[in-house]
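Dear colleagues,

For the upcoming journal club I promised to circulate an example of a predicted protein-ligand complex. I picked one with S-adenosylmethionine because it came up in last month's discussion. The inputs are reproduced below in full, followed by the predicted structure.
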Amino acid sequence: MTASDAPTARAPAGLRDRRGRMLRDLRISVMDRCNFRCPYCMPRETFHETYRFLGSHERLSFDEIVRVTRLLVRLGVRKLRLTGGEPLLRPNLTDLIGDLTAIEGIEDVALTTNGTLLAKHAFELRAAGLQRVTVSLDSLDPDVFMRMSGGFGGLEEALGGIEQARRAGLGPIKVNAVVQRGVNDHTVLELVERFRGTGVIVRFIEYMDVGNRNHWRREAVVPSRELLERIGARWPLAPLEPAYRGEVAERYTFTDGGGEIGFISSVTQPFCGDCTRARLSSDGVLYSCLFATHGTPLRDRLRSGASEEDLLDALRALWRERADNYSEQRHQGAQAAEGARKVEMFYIGG
Ligand code: SAM
Ligand code: SF4
Ligand code: SF4
């Protein structure tokens, strides 16, 4: 796809929010549970053995997810990303992928996973129509990885998952690494070196204040600019044009032909102006921002016989009323933004 024919955030026709942004992307959290306890997402002290996750009847069924997705496609959605919690913990996920990829109008279906179960499922995911995977992997240092997964380890499994995904053709594979100062920032170059020249695209994500339970501190954020300088000093880099408007990652290419890397800088360079994403939680609440304090609950309406028109009206209203720009507010130093009661990342999906 070229930059000119790609969906734009401000195309003249179609449903638009109060800031003129269209609805293009849907992130679907298929599972609130996870086999990791990354402290920046699901800290152990909160998400312990007795934490009450959703029961299976409380999660949207595959039919319900497909129904909501079809409606959102009518309102503009073209790209889907399945996430969680850990999406590969959801039984029979390939069935859902098969149903979603068959929806007319959907152009791209991807999955974000911690990779530990990916080797087992990569080929069946590809066969079901999944196009791409993103694997979250914060460090190649086993001790650092152990700490960042909340003590669960699994580095070798995640690397095995990436390799199997490559064999299955689930590419281009992206590796997402959240960088925290004093935790894994000293292992960034190693991560770049490992994947340079392999076709796998490493993307560094600024540590975000998602939810209210991860003890976020601004001092722990490593600005992308700093990483860019460090990586560029070792392997010269040149900026790439965005592949399409609204792309969240700033992309760079290694000038020696070693491939590309990306930076997602929601804290230091917010990109709310082009944000075309909605998020569906595993229990069927639709959110218009990752940092939302409330959403539109759909599950009970779906289960009590709401008509297509009723549901479409609710979805249209949500998007028309949307004015979210949390990261811009945070950037401008709005205290109210950081203090608000927000949904948690594991629940809404990254
Ligand atoms: N469990 C899967 C995984 O880790 O890839 C999917 C869900 S996870 C919530 C999605 C993404 O959110 C991951 O790449 C993770 O690193 C990122 N994430 C979670 N908490 C974050 C935070 N506080 N700041 C930045 N990224 C975060
Ligand atoms: Fe689980 Fe992903 Fe959150 Fe880590 S980032 S706790 S793997 S949902
Ligand atoms: Fe989109 Fe909200 Fe993130 Fe801004 S803060 S880019 S509106 S999800």
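Two points we might discuss: Confidence is low (pLDDT under 50) at residues 1-12. The radius of gyration is 19 Å.

See you all on Thursday,
B. R.
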